[in-house]
Amino acid sequence: MNVLVRALSAFAWRWLDKVDVPLLLGLGAIMGLSLVVQASAGGDADAVLKQAARFAIGLGALLMLSRVAPSTLRQWTPLAYLASLVLLGLVFAVGTGRSANLWIDLKVFYLQPGELLKLSVPMMVAWFLHQAVLPPRWRTLGITAAIIGLPVGLTILQPDFGTGLLVGASGVFAVFLAGIAWWRIGLFAGLGLAALPVGWQFLMPYQRDRILTFLDPESDPLGTGWNIIQSKIAIGSGGATGKGWGQGTQAHLDFLPEHTTDFVFSVYSEEFGWFGVLVLLALYFVVVARSLWLASQARDTYGRLLAGALALTFSVYVIVNAGMVAGFLPVVGVPMPLLSYGGTSAVSLLAGFGMVMAAGAHRRTWGG
Amino acid sequence: MKRRRARPVRNAAAEGEQFRRRALLAALGVASALVALALGYGRLQIQQHEEYATRSEENRIRLDPIVPARGLVYDRNGVLLADNAPAYRLDIVPERVEDMPQLLAALRERVALSEDELRRFDNARKGSRRFKPIPLKLRLSEEEIARLAVDRHRFPGVEVVPYLTRRYPFGELTAHIVGYVGRIDQDDVDALEARGESRFAALPHIGKTGLERYYEARLRGDVGYQEVETNVENRPLRVLRRHDAKPGADLHLSIDIALQRAMVEAFEGKHGAAIAIDPKTGEILAMVSLPSYDPNLFVGGISFNDYRRLNEDVARPLFNRNVLGGFPPGSTLKPFMALAGLDEGLITPETTVFSSGAYRLPGQAREYRDWRPGGHGTINLRESLAQSVNTYYFDLAMKLGIDRISADFDRMGFGKPTGIDLTGEAAGVLPSRAWKQRRFKQPWFPGETVIAGIGQGYWVVTPLQLAQGTAMLAGDGQLRRPHLVRATQAGFGAPRLPEPQPAPLPVVDDPAHLAAVREGLVATMHGPTGSGARAAAGAHYLMAGKTGTAQRVSRQGTERLDPNKLPYHLRHQALFVGYAPAEAPTIALALVVEHGGSGSLAAAPVARRIFDAWIGPPPVAPAPPPSASASASASAEVIPAPAPAAEEPRG
């Protein structure tokens, strides 16, 4: 018996030695809550099992990537970036999807290149900045802008505004963490503001509708406005302590659309109340903060920037989704990370945390 | 730090430090954003909890779309051509169904379900949210409704829903004008979403072809909504608030359904196309493309077999020849050539040309022939039209040259869409140097100008373009946009708003030129030598016209070929353009009879029957000449009593 335990623990140590336990606990807690909410919102054991299966695949990816040394990952980075760009281009040629062609049919499963970009773009930016002189100056920033801009532009053309936003954010965060001067940040922010009216011209009609509806939800009570109104009712009626698991009427009476995917946080807020919200937001913060700490422990610039960018992008998911379902922000198709129902995003997120753990684990003491 | 550019040295420690500062800052940023979110949620969940709790309690309220009644379509005398009929359909809400295969099997025992319907339902399910009702079967019979009502409680998620379906009382007769609506498919939904019009996906139908498609935005009206209080099972209890739907606008067409019917009968079963236009306004009085099809088949979703039958028919019943078809105009182009020659000052009505039976370009061996062996002798403008003398127009074409031909026929509306209120109109081909260079990357040859003069060679025209041009000859020499909708009306009692039309474009420089051409066209029908004289014999009114034969294959080398043995699509087409009564035209006509042989034998008699139907029998006593309104009331007797639904209030 003792032998078996020892063998098992030896095996576990061999394979789990790069895994960061606090981060894993934080992620595990969120995934656990996800299954609980999905069981209530979807009301379908099958869906809960599918979600659990995705988590299992994602954790497998996490485990594997945590064992890849950042220096090895760095060597493969340009190839990964190019490959994901090629796949993104393929989507335009052979993509499928209902309102936008976001998917490639691989017969076995559907591949969404946008999800790959969420990893490969911060990887590529980190790869480039790793060799550059920091803090970055104009030349460096120009090339970085191209590395980020090309995939973001293509993604928005698809059109998938939510993914474009997240991919862009991941690259920008890497630049921020690389120590770009504050006055340059100010300049870019000013330029961005000035470009807003121009950008408006390029938005799809449905995106304009969403922004206009955000400003006045009652103007479109049958469309997007309905979602926001019903979502706010769900959240507000939850109160401090919530209606209890499985008791949220909004989702169960079909008032809340997309209540297993983009609007799952409203269901959670309705059933578990403000205290539930505090717990979940705290868990998200733990994940982000621990990831940033791991990033700062990384041996080289590449690992640091990649891990840091992934951590901050994760926080953007949380802030944008929580803000959107409560009507604080316009509706963009961004899911609540790990809580929403859906495959590719859970897997790519967990894979990202595998890279974060690798960056934190292969630190100076390891043959540095 | 003076010369940083010189060769900057990386400082790993400083970079790490820089990162930690930025990471800490970012963590603080994330923390404050999360705190702000927590406070925002607190405001919703604690401060405003009462309000939202009440709204949630009241939220047994569902927002249902209200579907507007689609606009009706009338002919020029108020006869209904497209109408809404109440019907019931079977909807299923997938989310509330536990075992779909079992439910479908149970429903099959009570309702006739075809494979097409089941397949369509499966497709619709894939693209739809689970809580949205999806139609399984349209147009339930009364018996089926009764059978479902008996054990409705056993089928949660199954609803029998009243709706308005579309009906075309005249079926085949108006198919190529009114078109049809069909069920909204995924492509339509995507297109509506892209235009920010997703609320219209709640409609049962969308215009697919014809006027139903062209005027879709006005026919469909606007979707309303109502707040419905529901019980726990989501069944409506009462309506709380209602934002009414805006019904679609009715269309009043210029079509005269009696003339439309007479036109079909005039073809006596042959295939072809015809358009009649009021030369004073450009209004289309009748337009047929034969064979036709029954648009009612498409309304509820056409069955796979029916569609294949229509689509694979070599006679192409779904193809509107008037707007989409094209053919070489042959001799029907001659009046327009004559007008161009007069306007350019190259000929006068007295100009004569000697026809020897064969025309040669200087220095070339090739002969361009007249249809009469040995030729027609010395011919003036009038006789050139009446006898359809090719040599006259070979000569005229060479005088004009291809550039003036291109420019003048462009002004007469050839080679471009006329702008009729139907989608997908073909432009045809107006031969020009630029067109040939673009199409074949070759220069223009003089021989091509010669045959262009008699409507052969590269020419492709649509019946619609010929009709528009003929209306110009019959009227005041101005080009008017041919159109089907005269007026729209917002509802039964509302005022009729005339549909605005673009200003007519003047084409003819001198009314005398028009008169000269018209004299030739009357001589064609009533002169001793006229090619249409046999068809016009015995009429109590004067008509004007020109016959033509469109050759699909060159006559060279195939002279002994029996035209009836040619492949179907290569057979000759008989053409006619004309108008009546000649002195004050009320109708201009262009028609084509497919594989009919010559224009004078096959097409002119059809035209005569159409003119007779429009103008009516001779007045018995001394009476005013027949006018449009008189003939309209006379022809109204042919029409069956208007469908009873015409009087029913809609909505």
Written account of the structure:
The complex is a heterodimer of chains A (368) and B (651). Chain A has 368 residues and is mostly helical. Chain A is built from 14 helices and two strands. Chain B has two domains: 62-253, Penicillin-binding protein 2a (Domain 2) (Alpha-Beta Complex); 322-478 and 507-636, Beta-lactamase. Helix content of chain B is 36%, strand content 18%. At the A-B interface, helix 7, helix 9, helix 10, helix 12 and helix 13 of A face helix 1, helix 2, strand 1 and helix 7 of B.
Q: Main beta sheet of chain A: strand number and arrangement? A: 2 strands, antiparallel
Number of distinct beta strands of chain A: 2
Largest interface: A-B, 61 and 54 residues
Name of the top-level CATH class of the largest domain in chain B: Alpha Beta
Q: What is the typical, i.e. mean, pLDDT of chain B?
A: 84
Strand content of chain A: under 5%
Mean pLDDT of chain A: 83
Query: Roughly what fraction of the amino acids of chain B lie in strands?
Result: 15-25%
Shape assignment of chain A: globular
- The CATH architecture name of the largest domain in chain B reads 3-Layer(aba) Sandwich
Query: Structural class, from secondary structure content of chain A?
Result: mainly alpha
Number of individual domains of chain A: 1
Q: How many H/I helical runs of chain B?
A: 23
Low-confidence stretches of chain B: 1-7, 554-561, 626-651
User: Which structural category do the helix and sheet elements of chain B fall into?
Assistant: alpha+beta
CATH topology call of the largest domain in chain B: Beta-lactamase
